[in-house]
Amino acid sequence: MEYLPNILFAIVLIVGIGFFANNVKKLIRNIKLGKDVDVSDNKPQRWKNMTKIALGQTKMVVRPIPGILHILVYVGFIIINLEVLEIVIDGLLGTHRVFAGLGGLYNFLIASFEILAFLVILSVIIFWIRRNVIRLQRFIKPEMKGWPKNDGNMILYIELVLMCLFLSMNAADFQLQQFNTEHYTQAGSFPISQFLIPLFDGLSIETLIIIERSTWWLHIVGILFFLNYLYYSKHLHILLAFPNTYFGKLGAKGKIKNLDSVTKEVMLMMDPSADPYAAPTEDAAAPEKFGASDVKDLNWVQLLNAYTCTECGRCTSECPANLTGKKLSPRKIMMDTRDRLEEVGKNIDANKGDFIDDGKQLLGDYITNEELWACTSCNACTEACPVSIDPLSIIMDMRQFLVMEQSAAPSDLNNMMGNIENNGAPWPFNQMDRLNWKDES
Amino acid sequence: MGSELKVPTMAELFAAGQQPEVLFWVGCAGSFDDRAKKITKAFVKILNKANVSFAVLGTEESCTGDPAKRAGNEFLFQMQAVTNIEVMNAYGVKKVVTACPHCFNTLKNEYPGLGGNYEVVHHTQFLKGLLDEGRITMEGGTFKGKRITFHDPCYLGRANNVFEAPRDLIKKLDAELVEMKSCKTRGLCCGAGGSQMFKEPEKGDKDINIERTEQALGTQPEIIAAACPFCNTMMTDGVKNKEKEGSILVRDIAELIATAEDL
Ligand code: SF4
Ligand code: SF4
Question: A345: which of A381, B85, B148, B224 is 20 to 30 A away, CA to CA?
Answer without folding.
Answer: A381
